[in-house]
């Protein structure tokens, strides 16, 4: 395992609502690794007409089946009809990410967090996409927003640590977030322990 941005590492994290956050690793850059498979509740948070609720469920099914192009198209149509539906934007972003379309994924995730800024998982995923685009300051802000929403969300601590360690050269802050990740993760990560030891030797 290399140092990575994790899209939804949820070792011990509470389940999120209203979005299918599945495994996926599409052309990940240095330090990334696949996330574990996890399907969250797919029920939209707002009431939809019966036809659109069926369309939402079908889009989720396509996402779970790995048919990312179909899922992205269907969530895009739902987002156009219901621009207030944050789950449609978030799931569209996930489908686009898994299909290798980072630009669409970033736009969709940015819209999702605009609608629901207190969703730690979506902020974390946006941070990953921004980091991959080389927008390190915006990635930092997204990870911090994830922690503002949930200070005990392990993936945001890990990803912020990686950002500071590898990309921003801020080892002391990286160390702090790695340590917080290890505390919160439930089952400490042996490789993160090696990163911590390496930083402690260098500081």
Strand and helix layout:
Blueprint lengths: L49 H15 L3 H14 L4 H13 L3 H14 L4 H13 L3 H14 L4 H14 L3 H14 L5 H13 L1
SSE sequence, one letter per element:
HHHHHHHHH
**Main pleated-sheet profile:** none
**Secondary structural class:** mainly alpha
- At CATH level 2, the architecture is Alpha Horseshoe
Report strand %. under 5%
Strands, total number? 0
List segments where confidence is low: pLDDT < 50 over at least 5 consecutive residues.
8-41
CATH fold title: Serine Threonine Protein Phosphatase 5, Tetratricopeptide repeat
| SS element count, helices | 9
The oligomeric state of the chains shown is: single chain
Distance between the termini: 23 Å
Number of domains: 1
Would you kindly provide a written description of the structure presented here, covering whatever features stand out?
This protein is mainly alpha-helical and 203 residues long. The protein has a single domain (50-202), classed as Serine Threonine Protein Phosphatase 5, Tetratricopeptide repeat, CATH 1.25.40.10. Helices cover 61% and strands 0% of the residues. The protein has helices spanning 50-64, 68-81, 86-98, 102-115, 120-132, 136-149, 154-167, 171-184, 190-202. The two termini are 23 Å apart. Residues 8-41 have low confidence and may be disordered.
């Amino acid at each position: 395992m290399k140092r990575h941005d994790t899209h939804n590492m949820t070792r011990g994290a509470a389940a999120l609502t209203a979005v299918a956050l599945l495994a996926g690793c599409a052309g990940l850059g240095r330090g990334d690794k696949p996330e574990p498979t996890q399907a969250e509740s797919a029920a939209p948070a707002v009431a939809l007409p019966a036809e659109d609720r069926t369309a939402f469920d079908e889009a989720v099914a396509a996402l779970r089946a790995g048919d990312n192009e179909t899922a992205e198209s269907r969530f895009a149509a739902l987002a156009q009809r219901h621009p207030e539906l944050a789950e449609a934007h978030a799931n569209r972003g996930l489908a686009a990410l898994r299909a290798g379309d980072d630009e669409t994924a970033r736009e969709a995730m940015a819209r999702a967090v605009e609608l629901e800024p207190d969703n730690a998982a979506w902020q974390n995923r946006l941070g990953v996409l921004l980091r991959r685009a080389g927008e390190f300051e915006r990635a930092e802000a997204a990870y911090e927003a994830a922690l503002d929403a949930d200070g005990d969300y392990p993936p945001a601590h890990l990803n912020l640590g990686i950002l500071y360690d590898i990309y921003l050269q801020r080892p002391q802050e990286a160390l702090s977030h790695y340590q917080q990740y290890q505390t919160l993760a439930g089952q400490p990560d042996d490789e993160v322990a090696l990163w911590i030891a390496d930083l402690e030797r260098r500081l």
